TrEMBL record:
It holds the Pfam family AP_endonuc_2. Residues 48-249 form the Xylose isomerase-like TIM barrel domain. Transmembrane segments: none annotated. PANTHER family: L-RHAMNOSE ISOMERASE. The keyword Manganese applies. The keyword Isomerase applies. This is L-rhamnose isomerase. InterPro entries: L-rhamnose_isomerase, Rhamnose_iso-rel, Xyl_isomerase-like_sf, Xyl_isomerase-like_TIM-brl. GO terms for molecular function: L-rhamnose isomerase activity; metal ion binding. Keywords: Isomerase, Manganese, Metal-binding.
């Protein structure tokens, strides 16, 4: 049992977002930090440090055009030299003035064409560097009743998704992310897992749903969505983060570690932790006031802790209690695992992997922060307004 748990923890993979390393903030203020990356290459350098100290974060997701470069193969080669690889390509059809009334659901066909062309470009970039996943999130929606036809917008969305899907290579996937609201406040064109699921189902097996943990109404039972989509073979990925109010993009496991455990319990129960299950575990976070590299390391550790606890659930005892209708017993099995201090186990797993058992401390002692603060002047904003 313990060796199987350790092996699963060693094999776990968590993808980092390039945008977590740049400056970020709210619409009120972006706080600049010293030493933040000025180029996609420097974001990859920082991501490689997170992997160096955790051993389980070997890929970095890109956001286009935030991470636009002339030669993506060169960026991929640079990442490889640092011991990491490029990950999911995230499309961005939410930042141009043209998208004020929507991107792929805009009433203007010229704007829709521009947006779809960008999605196709993202598929092509992924193809060039051998990346499997292209992730789509649309800020599209309306602010006022009557502003546009809800149904017509669904038709336009379906058309855009189909054209993008048709461009995918055999081994590529389209990941569709939903979000309850923001920036649109009345209707959102992909507001929930049901809408995302219905579109993905029509598209076919290469279309999968992304669950961003911050994209639900307060109180939503996210692990139910996880269980349902897994059962249907339609859970493609997570964007992990945590929230107290809306889409806060705080460190995963910071606001509600118990929720993260419940999610990972569903994953482990469905044997979906292993890479072959096709669920990508990604972070989608912004570190507005905390230092970014240690915050990413902490986030990876939080996912590892929730995973370790989920792996420790005594499945036989749980099934036994469930089948016997032993409500308290079943709940106790789950809570026993959740209340286990898994930090010594993870420290051991890190030692087995040749890593320092204390990744944040090891990073802080490494001198990397001092090096980037001295060497980088004028770091880039993570995204919003960039
Ligand atoms: C939208 O809120 C979102 O979660 C999408 O994943 C975007 O690509 C990302 O945030 C940008 O930070
Ligand atoms: Mn997201
Ligand atoms: Mn979000």
């Amino acid at each position: 049992m313990t060796e199987a748990v350790r092996a699963a923890l060693r094999a776990q993979r968590i993808e980092l977002p390039s945008w977590a390393f740049g400056n970020s903030g709210t619409r009120f203020k972006v706080f600049g930090q010293r030493g933040v990356p000025r180029t996609p290459f420097e974001k990859v350098e920082d991501a490689a440090r997170v992997h160096a100290f955790t051993g389980v974060a070997p890929t970095v997701a890109l956001h286009i055009p935030w991470d636009r470069v002339d030669d993506y193969s060169r960026l991929a080669g640079f990442a490889k030299e640092l011991g990491v690889g490029l990950g999911t390509i995230n499309a961005n059809v939410f930042q141009d003035d043209d998208y004020m009334l929507g991107s792929v659901t805009n009433p203007d066909p010229v704007v829709r064409r521009k947006a779809i062309d960008h999605l196709l470009e993202c598929v092509d970039i992924a193809g060039q560097v051998g990346v499997r996943d292209v992730k789509l999130w649309f800020s599209d929606g309306t602010n006022y009743p009557g502003q546009d036809s809800i149904r017509a917008r669904q038709d336009r969305l379906a058309e855009a998704l189909q054209e993008t899907y048709d461009r995918l290579g055999d081994d590529q996937r389209l990941l569709l992310e939903y979000k309850l609201f923001e920036p649109a406040f009345y209707t959102t064109d992909v507001p929930d897992w049901g809408t995302a699921y219905a579109h993905c189902l029509r598209l076919g097996p290469k279309a999968q749903v992304v669950i961003d943990t911050g994209h639900h109404a307060p109180g939503t039972n996210i692990e139910f969505i996880v269980a349902f989509l897994l059962r249907e073979g339609k859970l493609g990925a997570f964007d992990f983060n945590s929230r107290f109010y809306a889409d806060d993009d705080l460190m995963v496991g910071a606001a509600d570690p118990f929720q993260l455990f419940r999610i990972m319990h569903e994953i482990v129960s469905a044997d979906a932790l292993k890479a072959e299950a096709g669920v990508a575990f990604m972070l989608d976070q912004c570190h507005n006031i905390e230092p970014k590299i240690p915050a990413q390391i902490r986030s990876v550790m939080n996912v590892q802790e929730a995973t370790a606890k989920a792996l420790l659930v005594d499945r036989d005892a749980l099934t036994g209690a469930q089948q016997a209708g032993d409500v308290l017993g079943a709940n106790a099995v789950l809570m026993d695992a959740y209340n286990t201090d898994v930090r010594p186990l993870l420290a051991d797993v890190r030692r087995e992997m040749g890593l320092d058992p204390d990744p944040v401390g090891a990073y802080q002692r490494s001198g990397y922060t001092e090096k980037i603060v001295a060497g980088r002047v004028g770091g880039q904003q993570a995204g919003w307004g960039a």
